[in-house]
Amino acid sequence: MSKTGLVLSNGTRPLDCLREVDSATLADINTNIVLAGALFINQSADHNVAQYVRNLFPLLGTKESNAAASLYESLWSSVDLQFNAILGESTFVCPTYLLLNALPGKAYKRIRDPPRPARRRHDQLLPRFDEFGSVLHFNNSAFITAFTQGFVSFAAHLDPNAKLRPSIAPVCRRWSRGAQTELVFNQTESGAPYIAPSNTSSALLERCE
After folding, report:
1. Number of domains into which the chain is organized
2. Domain ranges, residue 203
């Protein structure tokens, strides 16, 4: 470790590389899945939330792990959803915000946010996720086109807003500290697509700190 940070064996400084990265590299890597921890946790096991936090973060003491457990208990009444949220946010969600904070104005933030009752099921987390033999639960062509075209348009033009095909997706703006805006992909209770910009939750950012 040098005074300027980690140096790899080939002389590369990872932090310097990140500082030089432009939107072409970072722009659409920040699409995350809400409560993706459900994919990695045994939903039928008997869990102790505070103990799980200590197992996941061994450097946390009893006081800190109990505080974290109380925080997630206030958000979700179901223990398995608390576990899903803790693992999902710490592993998949929060790292994207750390990256966004470190490199403001260089990335787009998109989030696939399925309806709350569906969050236990891996096959609800993406518009197409059939590796486990599941079925397509939200088979809406307009939604699927809008969600996938963001990736394809970015790959072609380095901008998810430069659409290769018309879609119902509104403009996706770059995320910055002064404009913490992300594009949410969801569906209404009636089954219609819901795609709209939204401010990043301050409570979520606080949990990520």
Report:
1. 1
2. 22-208
